[in-house]
Structures
1.
Amino acid sequence: MDTIVTAGKLNNEEIFNLLKQFITEVIGEEFAEEMDISMESSFNKDLEMDSIEIVAFSEKIKAHFGDKIDFTGWLSDMDIDQLIALKLGMIVKFIETCQ
Amino acid sequence: MARFICIVPPLTGHVNPTLGVGAALLEAGHEVAWISLDESLKDRLPKGAQLLLISYTEDDREAQQSLQYLDVITKKVVYGVDSIKFLYEEVLIPLNRHCYRGISEWLREYKPDLVITDHELFAGAIAAVQLGIPYVTSVTAPAAIQIMDELPKVYEWEQNQIVALQKELGLRAEKSIASSDLLNLVFTSQEFFGKPKMPEHYKFVGPVIYKREGTTGFDWQRFHEITDRPRILVSIGTTFNHEHKKAFFEKVTEAFAEAPVTVVVICEPTLVEQWPENFLVQLNIPQLEVLPYLDAVVCHGGHNTVCESISHGKPLVVIPIAYDQSHVAGRVVDTGAGMRLNFNRFKAKHLREAVYEVLTQPGYSAAAAALSQSFVAAGGTATAANLLIKAAGSHHEPLLSTHRYV
């Protein structure tokens, strides 16, 4: 899944679906199915992902977009409060503006 | 002969390694005392040790200000990155602030040659620096000294909390002094720690497992009666006592009721109304004596239980709850010694599947056995004690034979 080469820009919804797929891969399909994953889902509170899972998720983004998007750089700039408040929609927006 | 002081927080996993190393120092003829808030530590100290209790007089209202954070840590439900913030803001900083004056007073009175302070009890380091006494750091939860490449600001934030307290207590230093410049005893092996390579004064001495001469009762007869099925241990340590504990053990019950395994559970027997027949439930067990007879361990990823299990070559299923446990669980998975489940998400069947997986696939116990070799090679108690003797400056003292403790 990680090797898909995307031609052209992804729109908002495509990015969201892609990230949702990554989350599913990290936390497991049966868990993801039970969750209502939306733009508003926070990683800490709603998705209950801990730091190790967030890092695994970030590695999937890196593997997919490669050098096109400096996701690690963006993430590593986040302070602890921003990380606690991090929502899926924020990442979608970041990727969208990077393209 | 040298005088040592160990400064420990009231957390079992942070205290135990110091007891093992301290016992070795005492046996070698040195003096060792422990500074703690916990009066019950007295009963667990090795022979010849002294407890220097931090206690404030009753009219000292500010200092008396109850030890709520000790209660808070066992009761509050926290998760993920949020739990790190909670740990510092609501537990560690108030705890260190509370302990500082008591520690300083004992250090002045006892005049140790060397202070050994826990990495989470940085008030010990601050007090030592203020009094000009050399200190070394005991790193009992090694994840705390690891910076995650992707999330460097979490570590930075932790350091900032410590620096702010340092300033408040009158120490003008721009960086955290929680880790000693002289020596850090890291109670794991480099193999289990993983990346990064730490500076020379971080010594990976392996876990120090302190075998207490205890008399904890255990139904050995029943335990040994059933020999035709694997035995597992389920424990989530002593730190968590909140509402999730009951839910957790109900899932454990569901997972293994009538399953062909014997399940030893560490928790209050009253927590679940009816335990299945193949369960043996006790609040305290002689864990080190039971471990050799087990086939797998299910735990929350406390560094001590994980290291004890690996030392015996037992594969693990780790279900981290908060703090550094997620990291410990990550290391167990990365080294191949076990599997990890998500505390909030897992269901009975996932636990059952994971336990069968580590029981039946030999790779897990093989990886645990390989790690246990790295623990032995790290040197353990005698190596740690010798490093401390050297750090205390008594070079002429005979060192301990490393063979006795292996």
2.
Amino acid sequence: MSEAKRPRLAVWKFASCDGCQLSLLDCEDELLALAGAIEIANFPEASSAISDGPYDLSLVEGSITTPHDAERIQMVREQSKFLVTIGACATAGGIQALRNFADVNEFISVVYASPHYIKTLETSTAIADHIPVDYELHGCPINKMQLVEVISAFIAGRKPAIASHSVCVECKQRGTVCVMVQGTPCLGPVTHAGCGAICPAYRRGCYGCYGPMEDPNTAALAREWQQLGKTPRDVQHAFRTYNAGAEAFLKEGQAHGN
Amino acid sequence: MTEAAKSVISIDGLQALIDALAAKNYQIMGPTVHDGAIIYDAITKTADLPAGWTDRQDGGRYRLERRDDDALFGYVVGPHSWKQFLHPAKETLWKASRGADGIVVTAEEPSPQKFAFIGVRSCELAAIAVQDKVFLEGPYLDVPYAERRKDNFIVAVNCGEAGGTCFCVSMQTGPKADAGYDVALTELHHNGAHEFLVEVGSEAGAALMQEVPHRQASDEQISAAEAAVANATNQMGRTLDTNGLKELLQGNANHPQWDAVAERCLSCGNCTMVCPTCFCTTVDDHSDLSGDNAERVRKWDSCFTLDFSYIHGGSVRTATRSRYRQWMTHKLASWYDQFGTSGCVGCGRCITWCPVGIDITEEAAAIRAAPMTDKEKPNERP
């Protein structure tokens, strides 16, 4: 592919831990091919050489938690032809969306010595709540091979081969024995596939890092969790982690009080 | 086979049988304990088998427990089935690359290994026969399946006990193996001896038994084996009334029970993954970053996913009720229209491995208990 035709990539950070954008640098075996296929035009985490937009592909990490970021994301959208949000923060508000259930001013007063310097929003929200998003890649963190798939698909002009069914399908494809049927509560049946069903392979229940699957029946799963001895509070805590702000998990969390 | 063809082997004889298969370069798969369950994996010796273990199964529940004897086959079926070897969860169909000579497409070469399966239950033989119909009969031969199915050596085991979710008697698939095996074993604990009654089911089985030390079965041993199978027959954990079932299900497409089951169903797809006859796959096409290499991968799919019924414009079966109904009526009814047989073999896996314990026998019974009247039925299907 000639130099002139390479699509220009930008990577943007909002409220997040950086883990998802670092998966791009973690693509050790694919990094050379990646650099050959796209021009990394704006990726401050990787290089201080930053070229101006517009960009063909933007990867957006993080959630919107400040008035400044709520404005900045508009600027990102304007400069991006195709915009992909990556990770639970960007797609669902992240773990920091737990603030949505509490009084953020109370947190600020406890955490910061000079709270008046802090300008923050009362909520942490997904990027798609602020701008139109072309594709969402789920996960906390995202799976780097899925990221390579999304970029490869973008370059080829095809749909990414990324399934939105339950983790259970991945679990069964790798031959893992179901932990839930053996008595360990698991969020796998309502959680979006993508991680490769890691936790059940190590005999742990799924923590729901990839957020809700395409058509989650969270109420039925919550009933089964209680059959397995979990309290409503346990159920609420399970749904309120990295994807607490994702609609299906949000609703199920709200249905189980303290 | 005549009664005279029945012989008896010891545990050492079973080891000799495994060794004889290994000498013929079979890859030997059998039951073994892993992660608190009996799964199917490579085995080389009788010590790999789950000696002294049994399984307790119910809807959405599975536990291994110690037996008070050292039986090698004292359990029923677990989460795995032989499908994972004959029809693997994921396989690359072909790869393509673009180079100086243009685009070159290479089909994946089938592995030259041939499988021997140890401990195949009669319901599983029925399931293999169902998948044979799907993949090997009709106008389209599934070449990778045919390659893996070729020259299999099957050591069946007749069940001496039934599990909590078993209903092979209802589906007329067990508990005694009657076809589709090379040799069939019935485990005997008789007069203080731990042995196996052997019935030969094929020429390959007869040839193999020439290499295995055995003696002729006594009438007593034959009776003990029959008693063991009768014991399993009388212990079925579930029953399914199949009388007119196809017409019943196909005539109740709008029954309120579909809504009731959808309220519990997670649409997670576990039932279809563990089902030994479910054969559906999807195909993913991948291209790499350079755009010079592509591959087509076939993976197990499930009729419980939205993508499964996705056609131009959207998914056809958006509601869980329609997806559950599709699965169950296909399995128990329209499978007859398509393949001339039931798609259900009564192994009970879909009941045990449903995280919320939905029971196909209970769902069928609920519709049978209160079928819709002609008056209640709408004129058209949804």
